[in-house]
Amino acid sequence: MPLVLKSIKIGVFIACANFLIQGISFLVQNYIARNLGTSGYGFFGVLQTDYSIFCTIADFGMGTLVLAFFGNRATKGRLFQSIFQLRVACSVAAAIAMVIFAITVRRHHPIFYGELILTLGLVFQHAFFDWYFICGKFWKKLFISKLLHSISYSAVMGVTLLYFKVSQIELVALAMVLAALPAFTFGVTQALSSKLLRLTRRTFLFFKLMFKAAAPYAISSFATCAYLPVGLYVADKFASAEFLSSYNFGHKILVLCSGIMVHFISSNLVAQHMSNDKFVHVKEIAIFTAFIAACSSPLWMFPRQFLQILFFAVHWTPDSLECSASILKILSFSLLFQAARLSMISTLLKNKATWTYAIIVSAAGATNVVACSLAGAFLANRYIPLFALTGDVVITVILLCYYIRKGTLRW
User: In this structure, is the dihedral angle defined by the CA atoms of residues 332, 298, 341 and 263, taken in order, positive or negative?
Assistant: First the structure.
């Protein structure tokens, strides 16, 4: 089976396993938007973006590092023990950092208390053990974990939003943390033993080596926060609450789709470890990009209908629907750029060119921050989503030039 087809097959399975919770999450987002109202939902989007960035800090590139370097070995013996302890330490450190961020930056923002509550979510993430299930190819356990979280999330958020009709950001955040506990507990029962709690000198030496090896992955992960999320922050800073809320609807859909793209990067790495091919093939890029274009075409062909279907509980006004549809249509093209560069990124990671990857991602991310910020400060609000794609364009072009210059681009 061609490498690209293996990647799509594995990626589709991982994406489908995650689709349970992602689908339920979108259903819940409907009622969060309805309960919080227009401006409240825009602020809630900023809170969730803050949380996703600190999740990136908690990961510190370790998920990609483990997949690229260890694969199945990461689920066994002392190596698994050390990796688990490292992931816990990173999560706790990120939670402390998020508390400091909330106190210093969000102190007078409407999401302040929600920010403090979601720090607990960094420690008790429902997806904490995903790396273990994927590395070990424990597909059934991964599916059970997502199913369990889907049931828990549906029950907790249903009672919170429909029965109690909660309309405070901090209480919604608390419900989200509680909903993650069953899936986290399932992961604990599948992977944990008393040996994992033992700390030795060897443990700290492993931490040091992993942090050194993960540095480029971590920088790359941080730099990815300078892409799509920047548009939301710029809207929060320069635009009205109504535009921020409209932007958040389109942003939510793109974050969901981009999360699925991350699963395909993982699947591509798994597939590439089955092959000794170190070249990037234009044919594979074209096939995968065409596949993603076909899957994402409703986002730019029928954005209004797509928004009304996914956010069916929202009371749309003609202006808000038109604004959100325009934003979604523009942002959806990010997926095509992500698809085009997927095999180029996974090839860099497999070939251990991690610092090259970090530099490229960071340079494009910095360009995106500057371009989007200038657009927010000096241009009309409607240009913010367009300039939020700057980073996607720049990184894709840089990667193509890199492989052309290296002479490793093949048909």
Answer: positive
